Structures are given as structure tokens and as C-alpha cells.
Oxidoreductase (Pseudoalteromonas rubra), 1552 residues
Amino acid sequence: MKKIKMGMVGGGPNAFIGAIHRMAAQLDGQIELVCGVFSSSPQRSYEYGRTLGLKASRCYRHFNDLLEQESSLPKSQRMELLAIVTPNHLHFQMASEAIKHGFHVISDKPATISLAQALTLARQLACSDVLYALTYTYTGYPMVKEARYRVHAGELGTIRKIIVSYQQGWLSGKNAESTKQASWRLDPEQAGLSCCMGDIGVHAANLAEYISGQSITHVCADLNTAYEHRALDDDGTVLLKFGDEIKGVLLASQVATGEENNLSISVYGDKGSLKWQQQNPNSLTLRYADSSMRVIRSGVANESSLAVANTRLPAGHPEGYIEAFANLYRNFAAQIRARQLVQPPCDKALDVPGIKEGIRGMMFIDSVVRASGSSQKWHAVQGAQLHD
Amino acid sequence: MKKIKMGMVGGGPNAFIGAIHRMAAQLDGQIELVCGVFSSSPQRSYEYGRTLGLKASRCYRHFNDLLEQESSLPKSQRMELLAIVTPNHLHFQMASEAIKHGFHVISDKPATISLAQALTLARQLACSDVLYALTYTYTGYPMVKEARYRVHAGELGTIRKIIVSYQQGWLSGKNAESTKQASWRLDPEQAGLSCCMGDIGVHAANLAEYISGQSITHVCADLNTAYEHRALDDDGTVLLKFGDEIKGVLLASQVATGEENNLSISVYGDKGSLKWQQQNPNSLTLRYADSSMRVIRSGVANESSLAVANTRLPAGHPEGYIEAFANLYRNFAAQIRARQLVQPPCDKALDVPGIKEGIRGMMFIDSVVRASGSSQKWHAVQGAQLHD
Amino acid sequence: MKKIKMGMVGGGPNAFIGAIHRMAAQLDGQIELVCGVFSSSPQRSYEYGRTLGLKASRCYRHFNDLLEQESSLPKSQRMELLAIVTPNHLHFQMASEAIKHGFHVISDKPATISLAQALTLARQLACSDVLYALTYTYTGYPMVKEARYRVHAGELGTIRKIIVSYQQGWLSGKNAESTKQASWRLDPEQAGLSCCMGDIGVHAANLAEYISGQSITHVCADLNTAYEHRALDDDGTVLLKFGDEIKGVLLASQVATGEENNLSISVYGDKGSLKWQQQNPNSLTLRYADSSMRVIRSGVANESSLAVANTRLPAGHPEGYIEAFANLYRNFAAQIRARQLVQPPCDKALDVPGIKEGIRGMMFIDSVVRASGSSQKWHAVQGAQLHD
Amino acid sequence: MKKIKMGMVGGGPNAFIGAIHRMAAQLDGQIELVCGVFSSSPQRSYEYGRTLGLKASRCYRHFNDLLEQESSLPKSQRMELLAIVTPNHLHFQMASEAIKHGFHVISDKPATISLAQALTLARQLACSDVLYALTYTYTGYPMVKEARYRVHAGELGTIRKIIVSYQQGWLSGKNAESTKQASWRLDPEQAGLSCCMGDIGVHAANLAEYISGQSITHVCADLNTAYEHRALDDDGTVLLKFGDEIKGVLLASQVATGEENNLSISVYGDKGSLKWQQQNPNSLTLRYADSSMRVIRSGVANESSLAVANTRLPAGHPEGYIEAFANLYRNFAAQIRARQLVQPPCDKALDVPGIKEGIRGMMFIDSVVRASGSSQKWHAVQGAQLHD
């Protein structure tokens, strides 16, 4: 079985997310990195590609070179998949160009920096044979998949309430914006409408929709800028409605001093509830009205087949973030292989976020920013009705 | 040293909170129960008093009998302190009568069922020599006191964000209201304006104000009735402002299936943050921007003297809810003894919630109910400016 | 219902265990302290009794005064129960005298300082109407009772292995023995054959036998004196056999720097295992070969009736060490009342450690000290065959 | 920078450890798998290699083919490093042959199945230019490295006690030995002298020696066979001496029903103690005699540079077992590169277990098996004096 050939745009020397994409892509031996453009500086791009062990001829200096030269290679050598790991404002254009050239795309989130762009991308994809994946990483954790399975199986009864929280502390302090990452994330030109909600709030919203199988329809939002000279939010809370019956709350902060990447979600139904926390990712806690608490553990009996399929190790050998990320790549690789063989992919492989989730994310960010600026309490999520 | 003589109103056979007040009052050997009215049924009141080992002559059938007959006893035998543990709607009148008769009062929360009543009670107390305590129990935990101390000492820097959450599941399910406690808590006549916010939301608000030393000035509220036939809220979320600089969120639910009494608070400042959870009450976690996490443990070196004074056991022998509750009684007993000796009480003894906290609680409930019914986002906490 | 009248010997100003016995005895309103001898200094004993609110006439200066004067009081006023909370070497003589005078006895552990004394006490009790309880406190925790219940119900299958560990750090450091408690615990005259095993190892052994329902039959021991000038052990490990089929390990230390009172036990059977830890006392973890983990929580559905009967609060309001201790007193009070009414006590009340457990404790200490001094590996627990 | 070319022997279709070696080797893009023999069945070996994407010419059918044909390839294509992941009894011979052919070796543990073999291998290595690594995986965790650093820096003071425990449940139940892995691990011909101690006890012993920097000098052992028809131990406890001053205990079990891979270690010194647990691998707890507890977290301020160098992700994105394993490969790759450049490797790269740790492991297994069969308590670790 040949490895799928991947190129990368972005992810140079100090971009931690690029390294993670590379590790995630290669972990399972399904994908190999063959080319890339790693920096906006042509020289740095070339040099960095060389340190990654790429052939000199495939360490490109410009994005256009990558597309054109790869397209001209014989099919057996050519890049098949492009990973986009640049700052947000470039995602749309690069994805769009890659699709035009017939390359499959896996993009860091958010898909774009506006809802209009996301809708455009969706239309483009609908008219092409190209596959598209969006790295909402947290849906790759086996216990997140287990949570989704348990909700869908009706184990919690009718869902009533969802609480999702993502707390970070890295933007706490007046001088926190001196890092390269902080500077682009707080810059509306590069990051889009929102920093905190665009970076992590949207992950939390995706997680809530993924596990519950419900769409956020209305929001009431309070975005904050703890350090007032900043151009975008670094903290916020959003009250949620998922239709008429389910209420929720989404908390996100990048100024929660001392928090690492404290993502957690609780879903409450009539019959039971569940809780998952990234800091203890291999456990899923289930509580019931009339029975004692259960803790589902990766690799232990009683898991769903979807969770099993996304677990690599025997129970008690902890798997973490890279493994969750790699599940997205591995499942997407299976989609690509099935496409190449003109056959349907297995169920497991379908469980990768795509442009639909990208659109939902942009709707969420748009609505939240609009709601936060209003003195009215509730605001419909624009276009929520589009979501099937 | 003589024990302080206590009477009790409420707290009959099936009222769990009455038994807890008695355990808390007597734990430290400072207070003895000498009389009471334990039920609205005169006969049941008498009989229950007897099972508690009280003299027959002091097992009263009516509240008025209690007040009058105790008043007529010689001072050396007479009740000195009345504990009020009835449903909410009776708190005000009973406290008011007891004060008129010169008895010190310790009341279960909320102090009253309206802000007007609470203000009346405060005026009455201001013109009397009687002491008044309100059992916001959670302020009795040593690690909650430690948290307050750390914030006041500036250890977290400027406070930016407060998240407080109180999750219970006992009202989950359509049939949950069949218990005696559920029936009065969901009845506006007995419980007041709110069930969930009045019962547990107000505890969470008090905890946030106690630890942070800040007052909630504005709220945006979404109260819910998960089971629509109920007359009062059983769930809700409140966005908070503490003045212009500090944002917060208060989450409370009684339909969070499987949650026990999951009260937790996180306070974030520029320099550090803290987290406390009732389910692990003897630990206080401190996180910093630039150093590793510390866990303060009851009884271990490095605690404040206030926490030490409210701890009974060597480290690692867990103390819990009854001990926290007993700290309120013990400290209030010290206030009463000091008043009897016409001397100032020690600092520790002053750390008991009183009518000021009772007024804050009523303001909170009032504002939240009003805000929840409005389509506007933010609402000032009525009379918040009265708070010093 | 009248309270049972209790006297106390020991437990003066700086003796933390005396205060705990008083809190535990009085928590449930079943027992009242009426008299005592609180210090070996007659004057200090008198004065301390007064600060506890006792009548001057019942603040005794000598143990003999207590016995004789209480015996001469009318039955309605007389002490019924004596709590012994002195250093170890006095337990035997005081219990023996109290029994002769017809007083029920509740003694801090160990029952005596030699096996011979414990056997003598057992014979004396067998010929008297007096009841005797020994405060192996940890058996009072509801989740410990639940653990015992689950093992007896066969939920774990055939038991194969038991690991019990009690780690403290208070004797770490060369100067740790300067406290009053350290000085008598490290003195063979007052503490008996062993410090660490006599103080906490014996608790761990009792816990293992209580939960498993099995007796330790053989030991291989390594007792240590981390600080060589000490006359008794401050650390040790004991390999255990419970008959031919079950192996175990008991770890105990008082020089485990930074440990608080870290008592934990794991019991492994063919079908499942359980784990309980004092630092999280309201949870009991059950693991299975072929199913996901369950966590039994005090007050949540699915508990045994014995655990329910020993729980005071709704789930999630933590109960701790004092409540566990109070369960022993409350259950013993029920035994005493039943004896007074010449009727059998309820099952729940029978669940209090007594002289049989006292004898087992002395056998354990004896055997471990002997085994530790030997170069042979295994040693029979002396008299283990006496245990039914 | 070119990737190092790796071959593999063992690790076929159902051998989970082979897949882990491949993931660990490739995670950081330093090493690529180019050839291998994956099964004792020539045909299955060939086919499996093909599914891994290897060239047909390098999917070997026999180990000798691998050695000879790779040796004959031009240097730029030739395998440089051989990973040995077969059952234990083949490790020695294969490592020895590979060394003779000039290939670097990374071997799954144990190094050999006898101490004599391990000593032979060490002598062979001493006379060659080849590098050798042994995958004691747990030393790859950043917080294990942090623990070692803290002990060496004297932060705990003089070490007094070490407790290390490794609990698994996979061999619980009479039918547990039906799996392929169970059958060879319980077979003395393939596994060597011991199952439980040889498989996991030796990991625990290595962890204790690695963190403490001390050697086990004496053991007292009790190995068990919970299911009597088994030919080797499935459980055991070992009392330890590290010289005259430090005592310890090692607990290991494969019949601890419901345990996953519960590896934990506590090290106690005069001034402080530390605890690490695989189930929460990114935290290291430090406790002190006179200060509050600290929790060091991977990626948070206050770590040693060695821990930082072995961490890939920002704090709070959990890293796990594969990442720890990959640290061994990455560091060994750096050793190999340095050797190729005839320069000294960086400090970080030296932190990989090698033949010295292999010898220590064989000494441990040998001594424990001998001690367990003896009625004497203590036994010297054979050749312990050889360890520097």
C-alpha cells in the first residue's frame, strides 16, 4: 500500500501547529510529506524544507510554484493532498486554488475568515471531485466519539442542557501579545472578526454540536477585551439555544491565567449526563439519575466500535492530542484512498470534519460578534436553518 | 464555660437541613439545643422534640409559645439564640419576632423572600442589640476562607474574570417534584421568586462576592424551566459584571442529571488564578502565569491563620460540609459571647454572613428574575450601590 | 429519648484525639459528655473539664475518683460509658477497671500494649454485661462499609490480592520527635512494641481484614527506623498471606515526607477489584475484567443499606473523618440502648469494632515485630487460628 | 537532513508493540522504516512488509536475508538501525548478529533472557562502534525526566524510601492465557525466568533506579502464580534495599483485575517527596515537609531543560505513551547522527537506556526469582557491585 503524498503550506520554523500536522499526518504510516512552502520568506521556506529531509526540488519558495510544479509532475510522484497551516486570512484563497488544481485539502481551522468565503468554498467543492477536511482536532479523541455515540444511542434521554468551556491563559498579561502567534491572532486582518471566539470558542461550539448532534440556533454573547489596547476579544461567554428545548453555555478565555488548554464539556439529559475533559482525555464520565457513575476508558470493554477504531494502544497507555489529531488524518486518508478506488469509504473514515463544519463555525463567529455588539439579548445564528 | 442555649424553629422529622443545623451547632460543644418548635403540626412538633431528648416543657407546639414562654424563663435557663430552618416564606416574620423578643437569630438562607423584607430586617437589627447570622454555608469551608485571603492579599493581581457554578440533578425528571422539599421549593408562595436561583444560585453569587470581595453590579440572565409545568425556574445562567473591569458567569441547575452538589469557583487575575470545588473541599488550587501550580491543603503548612482557625483535624483527615457549617455556628457563638461580655469579638468570629449578605442575596434574586424576563441584555442589580 | 452519659479519661488540652472523640460522640445528639479526667496533672484535669462546660463536681482529678464517685451517683445521673483516650500503655488497666465497675467502654486503639493483655480483657468482657468498642475509625466510613458489602456479596469473585497502604510524613526529619505526641509514640514504655505498625500499620491491617472478611495468617516484615536514634520503627512493609490463596502487601510509614494521612486499599478478585482512598472518602471505585469502571458515591443510588445507614447528608455534600468516627459512636450507642432494653441491637449497630479486633491487632503487631527481627521470610501470625 | 534508515525484526500483524515502535520511530520525521522481517512465516513477513508500503525487495523472509542483503547495499541506501521487537528469547541472538554486521540496534526489553547473555552483549558492544538502545519506555516521559532531575538536584534531601508499583489485569481469569501474547509470556522458553517480573517488574525496577539514581542491592521477594497451572509468575512483591540507607517496595501484578497499565512511583526524602503516575503522565507532584504541594506540568514554567527538550506540545495538550516512546527514538537518532559525524552527542541524546540498564534488568530478574524460591528473607542482587 503506497503512502499518500502530502504537501504543506505554512508551518515553518516557529509555527508549532505545522509540526503537529506533520506528526499527525505521519504517525500511522499512511501519508508522507513530499513537498511544501513553509514561510512567506522564499529563502526560509526553502531552507526549512531541507531540514525536514525533503528533496531540494520540492522545497518551494512560493505557493504558486508549489501548485504549478506539482501539477506538472507525473501522477505517481505528484502531491495528492495539501495541508494548509497558515494564518487564518490565507486559508480561503489557498484552499480554493488547491481545489482548482485538483488537490485534496486538509485545512487548519477556521476554514475561512468570513461566512461568505466559507459558502463560496462549499460551492466550489460541490462542483469538484476534491475532498476537504477541517482540523477540528478535538473530534478526533476516542472518548469524544464515544460521547457522541452515547448521546445518539439515547443513553442520556432527551438532552436539556450543554455546558462547554475552553480556558487558556496564554494571552494573560499586558505583554502577552509580544509573541508571533499572539500578534497575528489579535490582528483583525489576519485573524478575522474575533480572536478568542475565532481561535478556541469555535472549537468549543463545534464540540458541542458534534457530541450532541444539535445545532446552535440562537446566541446571547458577551465578548471582552481584558486588555483594552487589543483590537479583538480575548475572552467571552455565550448563552446558547439549540432550538426551543435545549439551553447551553459556552465559556472561552485566553486570559484565564494559569489555564493550559482546559477544554471540557458536559451534556445533560433526562436520564443521564456525560462529562469529558481534555486534561483527562481517555476517560468519559457518565452519571445517571438512578444508578452509580460509570467511567468509560479508552481501550477498556464497553466502548463503541467508533471509539475502538480510533484507539491505538492497550488501555492505560495514555493517548493524547497528537493521536487525536492523527485520527483526523488517518480517517481522511481512508476517504482519499476510497475516492481513488471509486468506492465508498468505511463509516469510520467519514467521521472527519469538513466544509459543513467550516460553515457552521463561520456562522457561529459571525453571530457571536454581532450579538456581543448589541444591547438585545438573543440573536439568531445567521443561516442556522441552512444546516441539515 | 457555659454552653449557649439554642432554640430551633422548623427542622422536623423529614427536614434534612434541620438535622444538619443541630449537628453543626453542637459539634464543637459551644451550643446546646434546649427547646424548639419542629413542625407546623403541634402534636408532631411536641413528639419530635421529645425524640431529640428535650424536656417536655420545652417542646413547644406553636412559635408564639416558644417566644413567650422562653422569654418568661429566668435568664440562666432561657434560650439565647434561635435557629430558623423553616421554608423560606416564614424566615422574615420569625426572625423579626425573635429580634423583638431579644433573641439572637441564626437563619437558613435566604434571609427573606423579598428585598423589601430584607431591608426591613436590616433596619430592625440596626436598632437592636441582637446579633443575626445567615447560613451561607460554603463560606465556612477553610479553603474558601483561604481563597478569600489570597485574593485580598493580592496574590492573583488584578481580578479579571470569575466563573462560579452550582450543579445539582435532584429536580431532573418529570416526577422529581413529588418529594416534600421539591414541592415547596417549586411553589412561589413558599419559595419566593425563584427556585433554582433562590436555592442555589444565591449561594453561588454569595461565594463569588465573598471570595473576590467584589459586588455584582449588572446581570444578564437566562432562567429556564426544563419541565414546563413547573411554576419556577429549575436551571439558569447569569452573565455578571462586577463593576467595569471584572466579568463573570454564574451557572446553576437543579436538572443537571447525576450531579450531586457540584459547586465550584474559579477566579482569574493578571498574575494568577484559583480554583475551589466542594467535591474536593480541602484543596485549593493556585495557578500562575510564570510558575508551577500549587495546591493548598487544609492543615498543611502555608495556610492563612483564618483557614487554620477554621480547621479541626490534622491534614489528610478530611473535613466536610458539617464542619464548614459548624464553623459558622462556632464563630457566631464567639460573637454572642463577646456581646455578653461587652467586648469586641475576635476577627475570626466576625467572619459569619449576616443581614448585609442577606440583602445582597435578595438583590441578586430580584435582578436575575427581572433580567431573565427582559429582552434587553444587561440589567443593573437593584440597589447595588447600597452595598459598601 | 435520653442521651447516654459519657465520661472521658485522657484528651486534655493538646491531645487532638480527645477533641475528636468528643465531637464524634456528640455529633448525632445520642451521647452527652458529663464527666472526665483529662490530664495526669490533677489541677489541669479539673480546669480543662471546666472549659468543656462540665459541672465542677464531675471534673475529676484522678481516674479512681472518676470510677468511685460516678459509681456512687444515682443511676439516672451516673456515667454509663467511658471513653479511653490516653496513651496506649494505660488502655488496658483503665478498660479493665471500668469494666469491673460496670461501665461500658469505648477505647482508642490499640486495645492494649500486649497480646496477653488483650486476651485478658477479652476474658473479662466475656464474664461481664459490659459492652466494649475499639475505635478503628476507618471502618466507620460509608464507602468502607460498601466495600465490605461488595466483597461479601461476591461481586469481585474469588479474592486474589490485597494491597493496603497508610502513608504519613509527620515523623520525617530529625527534629520531628520534639512534639508531645511523637515523644510518647516513639517511647516503648508508653507505645508498646512498635510505633509505626502500632499506630497506623494496625489500622491498615484492620481495614484489610474488615473489607475482605479474611484473616492475615502469615507475615514477612521489614520494619525500619529511618532516623537511627529512635527506639521504635517509623516505617515498614509487610508481605501478607491470608491463608493459602490470597496474597497481600501492607505499607506503612510515618516518614513519607509530605503525605498527610494517605490511607488506601485495593482488593483484587477474579471478576473485579475495588479501590478506596481516605483522601476521597465518599467514592468507591469498582473495576471489572469485562466492563467499564463504576464509581459508587455516598448518597447516590445503588449503595448497600449499610452504607446508607452510615451517611448523614445528601450526595455531594462531603462527609469526612469526624462523621466516620461518629458512626462508631452512634452505632455503639444503639448497642448500649438495646442492652438497656434487653433486646437485640439492629444489624447496623453491630458494625462496631470490639475486643476481637483488638486481639487481632495485637497479634498483628506482635507477629510483625517478631518477623522483622528474623532472617527467615515467613512467620505465622501468633494465634491466628484463634480467630473465627 | 536525511532520515535515518531503519529495519525491523518482529512486529507483524497482531503484535501491538511492533506498531508502536514504528509510530514512535517515525513521529518526529528523523527515522524512516526501509525494510524488515515481520513474522516467522516467510510469506506472512513479506506480505506484511508490503502493507507497510515497503519496497518488495526489502520485505525479507528471513532474518539472515535481512542482514546480508542490507549489508550488500550501497551505503546511501543501506539500513543503519535495526529495531528488535520479537519475543524475548530472540533478542540476544539478533542483537548480537546485527552488531557483528555493523548495524545500530534498538531492542525491546528485556535485552536478553539471561544475565550471562546480557554480559556477553555488553562485551561485544564494548569492542564495536555500534550503538545500542533498550526501550525502557517509561524513562521517555518528560515528567519522569523531571523527577530524576529534581532528585539529583537535591530537592528532596536525603532519599529514605521508594515505592514503585505496576498493576495490570490482563492475565486475570483462567482463560486469560488464550491470547498469543499471553501464551509466549507465560512460556519459560520464550519469556525467560519470569513472566510478571520479566515483563513489567523490570520496568518498575528500572524506573526506580532511573529516577533515584540509586541501585537496588538486596531483594526479598514473593512471586505468585494466581492460577496454578501457569508455568511462570503472574504477580509478585519485592522488598528492596538500595544500599544501607534506602528502603523500598516494588509491587507488580498482571492479575490485578481491572487495572490498565497502572504504573506509579513515589520517592520520599528528608525534605520532600515526589509522585508520578502513568495515568496522569503530564503531572509530577512534589510535596514538602514545610510548604504546600506543587504540581509540575509538562509545558508550564519551572520545568528542567531536559523535560522541556522531551516535550512537543504547549501545556494542556496531553502527550502520552507514544510520545514518550518516540523520545527514546529521537534521542537515539541524535546519538547515531553524532556518531556519524564523529562528534559527541548532546546531553539530551545521551538520556536513552542502553546495555547497562539491560544488565541491571537481568540482575534484577535473576535475583528476584532466586529470592522468591528461598526461605531466607534478604538476597544480594547478583553482581550489583558491578554497577557504577
